[in-house]
Amino acid sequence: MLELIRAGLHNSVQDQGREGFRHLGVAQAGALDAAALWQANRLVQNAGGAAGLEILTGPVVIRFHRDSWIALTGAVFQASIEGSHHSQPIANGWRSPIRAGQVLRLQGPVSGRCAYLAVDGGIDVAPVMGSRATDFAAKLGGLDGRALRNGDWLSTGPAYTGGPRVGVLQRCWTPEIRVLRGPEFEQFDAAAQEAFFRGAWQVSPQSNRMGFRLQGTPLQRSVQRDLPSHAVFPGVVQVPPSGQPIVLMADAQATGGYPRIATVIAADMWKLAQAQSGARFCFVQTDRDGAALARKQWEQELYRMEWSLYGKGLGHRPECRSG
């Protein structure tokens, strides 16, 4: 069992999301940085799709009531395990043991936006529509469909039998995010098209799990007409009348009516998820072949991670590198 002494703000139980229900208006939900949660789970020998904690803000203080193995990935927090007589810092991307009665303390984030805590056995909440992910808008999944609160208790699955401390490579955030042109790209004038790709963008503080609002040069349409409602999904870049784009994220609605200037490729959604408010980045155009190649490269990275954990590569400290 995990006891949340301090739960932080907007932190929640997440997994890889809820697939196959968008036609019913049900959001995907799940981790904003799905790959980071997958990494954390595999470090403690959970299935990659197991539920963990998505941590956006500290301080977070969790008391463990059984011996456990834990892993933190994604955004970097100041993290330590505290016992009755000592405090031990823990590194991002490493599997670490924690004893019954000890406390995990997180402060931050120092860099990045969302961290993921995996516990051996996974977070054991009731699945809804095949997923344990928290959907805030629909109030389903996770712990009663809401953010975690001080005093909450979370159950975990069967404990992992143990092993050495191991770590995996953690990606370094870079400010280029690849996109495909959207269905309404040609409805924007030449100046707007150039500004979209050449301009610098920032994530607004008025962003949430449904969508990241961007700040930059306002984008103007050359074709002024209403659009019929259409399907949308995480990664779609919409442009409302203000001209400031909104990138739909994990909790995005199933339909929308704003013009879609672009779509962030799946392999780069983690970069957007980890962009702190005020961080500057740019969009880079790619095509379907480029998106498919990027996805294949990420799958190869996952394969190499599995090999490093369960093959000959155990015990080497991971170095940060570009995503």
Low-confidence stretches: 312-323
Largest sheet geometry: 9 strands, antiparallel
Gross geometry: elongated
Run of helices and strands: EEHEEEEEEEEEHEEEEEEEHEHE
Spatial separation of the terminal alpha carbons: 34 Å
Give the averaged pLDDT, no decimals. Answer: 92
Class inferred from helices and paired strands: alpha+beta
Helix content: 10-25%
Number of strands: 20
Total number of helical segments?
4
Radius of gyration from the alpha-carbon trace, in angstroms: 20 Å
Number of structural units classed as domains? 2
Measured by DSSP, the beta-strand proportion falls in 25-35%
Protein name: Biotin-dependent carboxyltransferase family protein
InterPro entries: CT_A_B, Cyclophilin-like_dom_sf, PxpC
Keywords: ATP-binding, Hydrolase, Nucleotide-binding
Pfam family, one: CT_A_B
Q: In words, what does this structure look like?
A:
Pfam families: CT_A_B (PF02626). It comes from Undibacterium rugosum. This is Biotin-dependent carboxyltransferase family protein. This protein has 323 residues and is α+β, with helices and mostly antiparallel strands. It has 2 domains: 2-167, no CATH class; 176-286, Beta Barrel (Cyclophilin), CATH 2.40.100. Helices cover 15% and strands 30% of the residues. It contains 4 helices and 20 strands. The chain has helices spanning 34-43, 190-198, 269-273, 288-310, and strands at residues 2-6, 12-14, 52-55, 60-64, 68-82, 87-89, 95-98, 103-119, 153-154, 171-172, 176-181, 201-203, 211-215, 230-231, 236-238, 246-248, 255-256, 260-264, 280-285, 321-322. The strands form 4 sheets. Strands 1, 2, 3, 4, 5, 6, 7, 8 and 9 form a 9-stranded antiparallel β-sheet that branches. A 7-stranded mixed β-barrel has the order 11-18-15-16-13-12-19. A hairpin with a 7-residue loop joins strand 15 and strand 16 (246-248). The radius of gyration is 20 Å and the shape is elongated.
